[in-house]
Amino acid sequence: MGSLVAALLNLLRFLELAVLGRVILSWINPEPRHPLLRSYVHTIDALAQPFRVVIPMGAVALDLGPLFLLLIIEAVQHLVARAAVMFLL
Question: What is the reported pTM?
Answer without folding.
Answer: 0.86
